[in-house]
């Protein structure tokens, strides 16, 4: 229940229904007809994604991280949830089933030989090339994908169909030089340096269900990551 409420709050923030702060906990309890504990769990999720901050005695304020909406990537939110999510379109390069080789096993920790659904796609924001994504879904956890989801949001699809939500992620951001294949797909010269995100996503008891490499080419991108002090100091 609180995950669904968190998703709705995130949607409201993304669509600027809450511009400065969230309604009070009591107002949210009435809105969703749930307990205070459920509301606090939902808000905790929203806060963990860097979208709100609590000010003692004043409530929960919305963080403004949209320096320029299309040029900020909120890594804490995950690639499928961004402020320009609705404007994103995809061009599918490859959608097939493969088995993990030793290179994928060593790089991402997937079992060697595991069946994978592979999606290679170019992504666009308002028709401008944004990224090239190589994504792999462990078939034992995600048995199938629809073409509609691949053109839009795969994570939304597997959340609704398989009740899979990201519990934690490993993310590595680096500047890498393009392979000949990636350069050809992006229309750039081989060995061009681009920002690249390597990500492994886990759910429930740290079960790997997805890993990916995303190469960004959209101009003037900034990468935002929210970190909370867990020590209480």
From TrEMBL:
UniProt cross-references to SUPFAM superfamilies, sorted A to Z: Chorismate lyase-like, Winged helix' DNA-binding domain
GO BP annotations listed: negative regulation of DNA-templated transcription
Record GO terms (molecular function): DNA binding; DNA-binding transcription factor activity
CDD domains: WHTH_GntR
Keywords recorded for this protein, A-Z: DNA-binding, Transcription, Transcription regulation
Protein name as catalogued: HTH gntR-type domain-containing protein
Pfam entry (one): GntR
Domain of life per record: Bacteria
């Amino acid at each position: 229940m609180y995950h669904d409420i968190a998703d709705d709050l995130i949607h409201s923030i993304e669509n600027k229904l809450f511009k400065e702060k969230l309604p009070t906990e009591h107002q949210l309890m009435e809105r969703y007809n749930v307990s205070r504990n459920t509301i606090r769990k939902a808000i905790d999720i929203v806060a963990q994604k860097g979208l709100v901050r609590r000010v003692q005695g004043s409530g929960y304020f919305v963080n403004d991280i949209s320096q320029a909406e299309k040029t900020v990537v909120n890594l804490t939110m995950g690639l499928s949830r961004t402020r320009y999510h609705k404007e994103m379109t995809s061009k599918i390069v490859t959608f097939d089933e493969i088995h993990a080789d030793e290179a994928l096993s060593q790089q991402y920790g997937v079992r060697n030989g595991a069946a994978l659904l592979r999606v290679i796609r170019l992504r666009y924001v308002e028709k401008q090339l944004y990224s090239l994504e190589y994504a792999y879904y462990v078939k034992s956890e995600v048995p199938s994908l629809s073409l509609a989801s691949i053109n839009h949001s795969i994570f939304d699809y597997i959340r609704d169909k398989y009740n899979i939500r990201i519990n934690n992620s490993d993310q590595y951001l680096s500047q890498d030089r393009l392979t000949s294949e990636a350069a050809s797909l992006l229309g750039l010269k081989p060995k061009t340096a681009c920002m690249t995100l390597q990500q492994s996503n886990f759910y429930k008891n740290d079960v790997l269900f997805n890993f990916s490499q995303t190469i960004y080419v959209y101009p003037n991108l900034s990468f935002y990551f929210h970190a909370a002090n867990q020590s209480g100091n």
